[in-house]
Write a sequence for this structure.
């Protein structure tokens, strides 16, 4: 399944029944997660240089737009009142996320992304998952979506959390690996391993685009 | 924060604002996740020998019971109709979970656990998270719980997924490390790292019991 | 829209843009809500004689089964530990629901219903909505369902709550009126009015079966 | 319980165990629902003159602010892309809600409300319930809230839906009746009846303020 861990792990996972391929449905959507400047620009504390990830997302968003495949975009945004002590539990642990303040540059979408405001829906979220406390699952269901391509940042945080929720919400999950990024390589790899074993298929962008062509 | 990854990762995480301590509230609950025989007994395909984890859970459950701290217990259980192709999306990827069938030994609670049927609530779940598609968050709120101790199996699957949901649902998360187990060491360590950095505090059982004493 | 209220109400609702017809999708499911003996048998405190409602549900379930349309069935069931004071918030208000105890006759499915255990999925719930704290939305999405027919009891409680959640979760809602019942006529009528105005189409069983024929 | 329906209904409801009083907890919050100009100003199609309701909300918000009780405010807001056919299921039925567009006067908060931007949290929602697809339950839990006072508009839509979700999410529900309004009297009364019977206590504003004084 991978060479991240040892052969014993692979044997254990095979026996436990992990890692089968998902069903690729006839009706995909692209979900672009948290590619705001606070994550894609290394000048922000929680950011790193995600230029290659952004490029892969540009390619996938253009592919989706040209095939009329729905695109949903999420970003973490807090009002100042939500960042006060004790108001948003996650911010006690994730102190760096307190900087994702409404109206600041940190929460502006990466300007390189070809967002189509007439069709794309932009959702605000307050936690790691793109689904938790948002209407994303409802919007996907309304469009008849059966399969989600999850892209963006970070692999070990919001992508992982969204993959778990997506499959729990009844959607097949595909993660095009060049289109997801992280500020640290170790957690990036470890979470791709977990996703591939348990929640969705980790694929290439090329494979993703071929799939979109057939949908 | 850990020596799982390199110093560069630690520096990156410190800059990004990960790893702060959670607030330990005055009203904890113990959530024991998926300690059914299909997970704790190595004779089952998805199981492994979790004897030490079960011992730590016995200690924590006894501590909770003696202090009148609420205990919630989850287990994965499917009706046969839920395991038919296309009915439960996760089972396409997680083929091993199809064996968690109602009425079989695989879904029986580990008989060593001191469950108190008069007080403990046992919840059935269909996915990785103890919160998703269950009334757990509502039950915790009804009891006034502010802090959850998450224990059980597996660290890289249901514990991780539950930790993410717990903090998103507004609960402080503590994970007593001897009380969570996994069938493979690599993913166990990688997910403890992620939990400690982003979602909850990874602590010792001794620390957990001292905390329960003060609640 | 109705003659339950006065002409002024109708004019106000028309101006406000309520009461348009839903989109009937190509992929329906039947969701049969709380037709347990505690609701359908008047010898139980919260029950009433729902014989005609049960008959309409038999007709709809047979129609669904013969067309291979998915059937989901819900029932309210509590463990005794969930009925202790302060554990399930709803039971403080809804004291009558405390009698819906696991293992008792009150929570047994009405024996007249043609449940097919090989295909139908039976879900337990703890509140009014068939969706809240259950995996129902995920199961519907996994099957590609776009439209739900909601039937069962009671119109003013669990049907209304489920209709609101269904449309919020992205499903078109149809309520075949002979197939929903209530212990009291006033709230039954008032809630059919609200559902028709705001959440789904109140239709006849005959219309529902014609729709299933075309799906 | 009420004289909206006949004595038979009252007897039936008493036998069924409806209408008990909720537990008033030590930690309340005020949730002000959808008092935007599109609802409170009769010049908007879905609006009506809610001057008295707004006055009652001003009184309650001031009472909450002066006692440091958390205030959460919701409003329905859609991006244009969310109002396209088939994107938000509810808007097919609720055509009037399509006018609740981001950046328009219809979604501006009623200017008479004493919102405190430094403390109050304003949440956007896409459906009837203040809880569905929003982080409200998590925010309430983080603040230790056990009891919600639900106010605003409309009684038969968003208040009713929010009352059902609040109790399902584990919160005691109080509805101060002068502080909730509707564009039509019949549905207003019918839904107060249902809420009082099944989900929360319908009380006076005076009683609500006395309760806040004791918290």
């Amino acid at each position: 399944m991978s060479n991240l861990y040892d052969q014993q792990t692979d044997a254990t996972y095979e026996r436990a029944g992990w890692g089968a391929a998902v069903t690729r449905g006839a009706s995909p959507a692209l979900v672009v997660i948290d590619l705001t400047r606070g994550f894609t620009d290394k000048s922000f504390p929680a950011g790193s240089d995600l230029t290659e990830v952004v490029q892969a997302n540009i390619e996938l968003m253009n592919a989706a737009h040209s095939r009329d495949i729905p695109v949903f975009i999420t970003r973490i945004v807090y009002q100042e009142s939500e960042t006060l002590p004790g108001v948003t539990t996650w911010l006690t642990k994730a102190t760096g996320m307190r900087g994702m303040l409404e109206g600041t540059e940190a929460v502006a979408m990466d300007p390189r992304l070809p967002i189509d405001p007439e069709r794309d829906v932009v959702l605000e979220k307050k936690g790691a998952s793109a689904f938790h406390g948002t209407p994303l699952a409802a919007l996907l269901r309304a469009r008849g979506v059966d399969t989600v391509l999850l892209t963006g940042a970070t692999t070990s945080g919001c992508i992982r959390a969204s993959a778990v929720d997506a499959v729990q919400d009844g959607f097949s999950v595909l993660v095009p690996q060049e289109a997801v990024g992280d500020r640290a390589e170790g957690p990036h790899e470890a979470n791709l391993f977990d996703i591939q074993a348990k929640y969705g298929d980790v694929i290439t962008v090329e494979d993703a685009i071929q799939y979109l062509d057939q949908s």
